[in-house]
Amino acid sequence: MHTLRETFEWNGRTVAWDRLGSGPALVLLHGTPWSSALWRPLADALSSRFTVHLWDMPGYGQSSKDAAHAVDLGVQGELFAALLQEWRLDRPHVVAHDFGGAVALRAGTLHGARYRSLCLVDVVALSPWGSPFFTLVQQHTDVFAQLPPAVHRGAIEAYIRGASHRGLRDDDLAMLVEPWTGSLGQPAFYRQIAEAEERYTDEIEHLYPTIDEPTHIVWGADDTWIPVDRARRLQSLIPGSSLSIVEGAGHLIQLDAPTALSVEVSRWLDAQD
Q1: 3: helix, coil or strand?
Q2: Maximum alpha-carbon separation in the chain
Q3: Where exactly are the structural domains of the chain?
Q4: How confident is the model at residue 121 (pLDDT cuts 50, 70, 90)?
Q5: What is the arithmetic mean of pLDDT over 180-197?
Q6: % of residues, the chain, pLDDT over 70
Q7: DSSP 161-185
Q8: What pLDDT sits at residue 139?
Q9: I need a surface site. Which of 136, 177, 200, 271 has the fewest CB within 10 A?
Q10: Could you report the per-residue pLDDT of 238-260, keeping only the tens digit for each?
């Protein structure tokens, strides 16, 4: 795993982040239960043309996982707006996946963040969202948090495998699972699910028609976590937005169809310059 070399302190939280390459500013946002590691191959590829910013949200990856700190979408959206100010980025390109989509949308609609362009990849943006396992954990968080480590690992591996349409290699599965193991990772995994409430997207859905940044939506045709009908609904709500459906890809489109996603994102970003 690549180490994020910088940190940002915000309201007691430590945010791990990194900056790669040179050129126009580009920020990549991860979702749940992922981290910036999922974006790293694309970040490396784009760093020859962009200054790419990667970061782990508090409660995820290499950032702090203090049990006393809320990690809900409300907190993450406010933090992202503050992080853009810390980086002195006025209008960066933004590419967001999953939960990161809601973070970018909240920062833009509620906290004054502005983007040069917005690319939303299989994002959490419209209710309902969350797999059956996700819902079950929300209802019994305290019980799941007490699972023996080996049982916990088996449960999370099965959960994460379900996000891929083509199946995961062992090394990719390990990369996604490891941050959620151990004395800090296991309770953090269940804590972030417990705090993931649909009200955080419901309260901004009516603002999507006010988005005036160029917006492109990318979706895996075989996403079982957030089905493709959400992509079409989202496109209908954001004026002038475009939509591309990637065949043979599930929710983990970065691993199911990395080449197709790279081409799609590169094409979109090049069209904005």
Answers
A1: coil
A2: 51
A3: 6-129+199-271
A4: very high
A5: 90
A6: 100
A7: HTT-SS---HHHHHHHHGGG-HHHH
A8: 86
A9: 271
A10: 999 999 999 999 999 999 999 99
Average pLDDT over residues 6-32: 97
The closest of 28, 172, 165 to 87, measured between CA atoms, is 28
> Is residue 1's pLDDT more than 70?
no
Four-point Cα dihedral 242, 245, 250, 255, nearest 10:
-80
Nearest to 51 by CA among 25, 69, 30, 70: 25
Residue type, 18: D
Tally of residues, the chain: 273
Average pLDDT, the chain: 95
The C-alpha torsion from 64 through 177 and 194 to 145, rounded to 10°, is -90
Mean pLDDT, residues 160-164: 95
pLDDT for 5: 97
- Write b or e for each residue in 115-129: b if 16 or more Cβ atoms lie within 10 A of its Cβ, otherwise e: bbbbbbbbbbbbeeb
Torsion sign, CA atoms 127, 130, 136, 142:
negative
Overall fold of domain 6-129+199-271: Rossmann fold (3.40.50)
Element (H, E) at 84: helix 73-87
Nearest to 182 by CA among 157, 149, 135: 149
Burial class from Cβ neighbours inside 10 Å (0-12, 13-18, 19+) for residue 40 reads buried
Q: Which of 234, 230, 229, 258 is nearest to 246 (CA)?
A: 258
Q: Dig out the tokens for 90 from the structure.
A: 């006025």
